[in-house]
Amino acid sequence: MTQPTAIVDDSQIAARHRAMWASGDYPRLAAELVAPLGPVLVAATGIGPGDRVLDVAAGTGNAAIPAAEAGADVIASDLCPDLLDHGARLAAERGVTLRWQEANAHALPFDDAEFDVVMSCIGVMFAPFHQRAAAELIRVCRPGGRIGLINWTPQGHIGQLFSTMKPYAPAPPPGAQPPPLWGDEDHVRGLLGTGVTDVVTERRTLPVNHFGTGAEFCDYFKSVYGPTIAAYRTIDGDADRIAELDAAIARIGDSFLAGGSTMEWEYLVLTARRA
User: Fold this and answer.
1) What is the pLDDT of residue 5?
2) What is the pLDDT of residue 2?
3) Beta partners for 271?
4) In the chain, which stretches have pLDDT less than 50?
């Protein structure tokens, strides 16, 4: 798949994304909702002692810390230093050592073929230029090394949330692609192309028992989740549009609860070997 050609200011885009993910309280969301995903990815990629591992868009270390606990030599990289600082504190509390490094997924500051495992757990999917990010995942992985990804699907809660927020959110940079496409098997296979072999994919769900109503789901995401906060800031002061977006996000929450107390958040697990 060919990435559309566009003139973009990479530093400006990076600054905007850095600020977005520093808003709200993503460390809280990571701890309360998605913590189980990191160990899933570590197991899927077979990480163990002696592996040199890079976690791309690592956030607070949801996957990087379990990889270090498995005995690997780990670098956790992310665009947002606030998230890395929080992750470093978590790692210290758990008594594990790893390296934390600010890095842009579009241009990773690492050598070709430097790592045995390159992974990303609901992280690289938010880099706006998919083909550039995918090429970097491949470049820094050694031939025969493993690439492992967990991404939310277009049909799941994040896919529906982004689709719902799109008319209210800031305009994306020219050539950017929607994050949930990384959870579409055909799309991500196209991104990785001939750079990988032995691709294995599986759709799974994460049970979430944190919300009693769709309104609670809405209130949570508009207070802690950077992309949702950005959408509301764009329509700040427009009471009618705020009410519309509130109702639309609440409907997503109610649809995933379906009268029960457990949401099932769908994600795609992909593993491959660098060709």
Assistant:
1) 41
2) 42
3) 148, 200
4) 1-7
Contact between 182 and 219 under an 8 Å Cβ cutoff? The reply is no
> Could you give the CA distance from residue 259 to residue 137 in angstroms, rounded to a whole number?
41
Q: Please, what are the domains in the chain?
A: 10-153+175-207+264-274 (3.40.50.150)
**Nearest by Cα to 108 from 121, 97, 119, 122:** 119
Tokens 């996957």: give the residue. Answer: 63
3-state SS string for the chain: CCCCCCCCCHHHHHHHHHHHHHCCCHHHHHHHHHCCHHHHHHHHCCCCCCCEEEECCCCCCCCHHHHHHCCCEEEEEECCHHHHHHHHHHHHHHCCCCEEEECECCECCCCCCCEEEEEEECCHHHCCCHHHHHHHHHHCEEEEEEEEEEEECCCCHHHHHHHHHCCCCCCCCCCCCCHHHHHCHHHHHHHHHHHEEEEEEEEEEEEECCCCCHHHHHHHHHHHCHHHHHHHHHCCCCHHHHHHHHHHHHHHHHHHHCCCCCEEEEEEEEEEEEC
User: Rounded to 5 degrees, what are φ and ψ at 257?
Assistant: -75, -35
What integer best gives the mean pLDDT of the chain?
96
Q: What are phi and psi of 270, to 5 degrees?
A: -130, 130
Per the structure block, which two tokens stand in for 80?
């947002």
Task: List the structure tokens of 239.
Answer: 């009471």
pTM: 0.95
pLDDT value for 7: 47
Exposure of 35 by Cβ count < 10 A (0-12 exposed, 13-18 middle, 19+ buried)? Answer: middle
Instruction: Please tell me the predicted confidence (pLDDT) of residue 232.
Output: 98
